[in-house]
Amino acid sequence: MCRSAPALHAKCYELFDEITNEHNGEVYDTLHLLMQRSFPMHIFTDSPQSIVSGRRGGQMQSGEHISEWFIQLIEKYPDILAQILHLYIKCVVSNPLKAWKTADEKIAIGYAAKYDSILYAKCNKSCADYLLEAVKADDAVGIQTRALDLIERILLQQTEVEWSIFRYDVSKVPREVPLLVEVMRCLNDRTFSVRRKACQVLITALKQGSPMTRKILEESIRFVQFDATNVEILAEPSVEQHELRFVKPDIQQCAYSFEGYEQLEAEVKNLPQMIYERFLEADNGLARTSGIALLERLVLVNPLIIYNTNFVRETSLLAVDRLASVRKAALELMETLLEAYSNCFALICVYCRIWSCLLSDEDVALQKLAIQSFNQTVLKNIQPMDYSNEPKHFMPWRIVSTLTMTQPRAYLQERFAMLLERETIVTPQLIKVIISHLSTSTDTDAWVLLLLLSSRITNNMDALIVSFNELSSYNMKANQVLALQLIICCLSNFSKPALNQLFQRLLEALRKGNIWLGLISSAVNLINQIHHLSDSQGPSAGSDASPNWQLTLLDELTGNIVASAQNFQAEHTRLQCLLGAYTEILVMLPQSVDYRVKEIVFKYLRECTKLKESQFDTDNERMTNWMIVIAGRLCLREHRLANEVSELYQIILTKNDRPQIINTTLIAVNDLGKKHPNILERNFQCILAKMHSKFAMTRVRSFRCVKDVILSGIIKLKGPILISMLAALVDDSAEVAREADAFFIRYKRLHEKTVFVQCLRESPFYLNGQAYQKGVEPIKTRYQSPLKSAKMVKSRRLLYNHIMSTIDENTLLLYFGQLKLLAEKSKDEEFVKSNDALAVIQDQLFIMRRICYLTKGKSKQQGARADGENSDEGEQEAEAPPAAAAAAAGTAVGAAPARGRGRKRVDTEDPQKQLERCLRYVEETHRNLQTVMGPELQHSFDSMCQALAMRFPSLIDFAQPAKFWQKYRSARPTKTKAKRKRRTADEAETEANTDEEEEDAAGTAEGESDSDNELPLERHKSGTPAVGGSSRGQRRNSCDMLVTELIFHPPDW
């Protein structure tokens, strides 16, 4: 008679029960043998799909698996079964069968968790102690990950000791506490696989953990007090009328409901910082996405992480991550958190930074995702003001306001118009709701949002003209500009009577000069657009003649300008408006400038040039600025007038240093120079002089003017111009320094990528007013280098450090070829006796000494990556944008020869061989300078030679003459290291950097300045600068850089 499978299994288990009786032998040995034989069966689930179809008894019933039989024996042999099942757990974690696949191991670990749960409930015995040791296994990643897998299973199921007596043997500290402590410590493991697995365990425990696990984690995260030191705090804007906003919560008083919470406090307190350092800043994209997921779960439990840690800064940096998957995860993180904490200003700031970058992302799918996100987060939350009773209803207006503060409105409008072409998210009902907000406290944001969505608006918009007519107060000027731009974009949505009324009203305002200056350009543009719309819908005129309204308006404006100029004191404000309208109309017509208008403007400027700076007040300064702009507009067409106004601009730049006037003049010169390049060349020395103004605002504007001229190719970057641009890198103003850094990055990308290599060779001479080569005159004698003199030593060194930080190691080592030039210069008595010659030599010695330390550090950093640390290179997604990659490839393959540098030089020589050949020049230079050798110069020589001895010991051991190098060879420090095992990545990194720190310490002991390795841009960063060379130190430390610049000039990370 054939039995079914369940009956057959039951019969087998009856026989096993009989076999395990004591009279058949040692129970432990019997059970050990049965476990050994049945061990491979633990990769089958209760209902294996591969067996069900051909099985007589159908699916496996509850209790059929061999694991159920072992569990039943616990009541009969509790101690013995505890040993057997613990042995099974240890084998699964530390020594699974080699034939098992990953999926098989997962099933076997599931049975291990099942055994552990029963043993803990019935016998108060757990494998937790073993697992705590297993996760610490060094150089055994498999054991660590399997141990974490089993810990995850334990944290997911609720298990308590089912004893009613002997409760004193049951620990009051839940076993989940030490397990969670060790999982959190694994986040800092040196191996990426272990860190990522620990991150997944915590995410799963927070999402699906047992009630006890979730209680422990949520209370620990909620009650911890994070250290807010060095945290960038955003200044929140004032709350608008009736606005509901998420407010920073107070720190909760500790009220733990479990024992052992003190074990978790230190780990939880360090958890956000650990995520920032070990995950968000990791080279591996999977690590960054895992860190984002864990950070999301933590913030959902405790929103104080947003305010009391560097959450804003670290998450903002994800906006320009190399991988599309990370950028997508960052946006989804913000969406989730904004749904939980609606209208939280800090989250809105980060959301806007990330969203703005995705709006023009290289990945088209992310662009579409950005629009969908905007629809979900902004548009769907817009309600009429009467129904706005939740923070999420006010959040859209705060998002729009933040976007307009950080991004150019034209850029946003362009991207919306392009991305909304195939979307149907803009509906007539939505537009009506937005229009209803034009009469509320969110009116400006409503105008902006309508402007962004204007390409998809289909409603009749006549009501907007009524709204525009009501914007007459001073506070509504910004809204008036927005309204005019919106009307231009939606011109076809207005009726003819409404447009005719608006046309007449604006024309009358321009004619009388009764209009705000900022509206003139938009008003003229709108009138012109209405005229063209009228022509396009009417019968063809068949003539290209200028419209009558333009000619009539120009004549009336000319007469009104002359009349107002005669009564200047009373009508100077009206005169400004009339002149602005005149220049706007003039550029539309083939007419010459009226001589009377030109004389009025030029006469005023001539009178202003006679005034001293102290004689300017607010009114005449404002008028002067406007006249400077008007003069430039009047002269755009006529070269003769351009030359005349150029002379006036030159006088203003030379005699005046008031920031507003100078800035306006520089802008006017720059704009005029695009039409007449000779104007720029004529005024360039004056512009260059303003780069050293005492006003930072003037230096910034001057730099931007010079930058535009150089990038456009009008002026070459050489001589005094190059020196001035280099000096801007070490300017005391953070804005000037950042502008200079951005300029050189762009210049190298567009024009000459080796410019800094040449600067490193020549700048020590030119910065100190010396010629680089004999027979070549130094930079113009009338030009004084801003970094010349002993007082500017630190600034020059900051500049050299910045240049060296951008050059690769091989090119830096080639700089030691300058030793030959230094020996030749030291033979020239005329050079040695000249002023600042010793400063040149000391600067070169400083550069060589720093190269020794920099190249040593770079070599160590390249090999100091922790075990198992992976980069993004192995992932599916591309790191760089296709355009950027193509540009990089083009640069590498077919780079244009360097301009103005003679023949192109190809450096193929081994740098160390070159250095070995040039070491003899060190002693020769030292001997040639004996007549002028002072303590300071001798110290510079000693420091450089000591650095060479530490960096290239094998070369210095055989350097000639031996007598000269002997004292440096003997002064080399000897150090021994004890080999120690490291568990965490931080400790491994510390060990990798030990040599560099000791060498820096040796340099300090020699009397060198602690700031010798400082970079100019680091001075302007808030907070403590990161350790040089680490991946964290190369990231931007201030989220204020993440605005428009990230979109139009992405950083080369």
From TrEMBL:
One of its GO terms (cellular component) is condensin complex. Residues 869-878, 987-1015 have a biased composition (Acidic residues). Residues 971-983 have a biased composition (Basic residues). One of its GO terms (molecular function) is histone binding. Residues 862-912, 971-1039 are annotated as: Disordered. Residues 879-899 have a biased composition (Low complexity). It comes from the Eukaryota. GO terms for biological process: meiotic chromosome condensation; mitotic chromosome condensation. Keywords: DNA condensation. This is Condensin complex subunit 1. It comes from Drosophila madeirensis (Fruit fly).
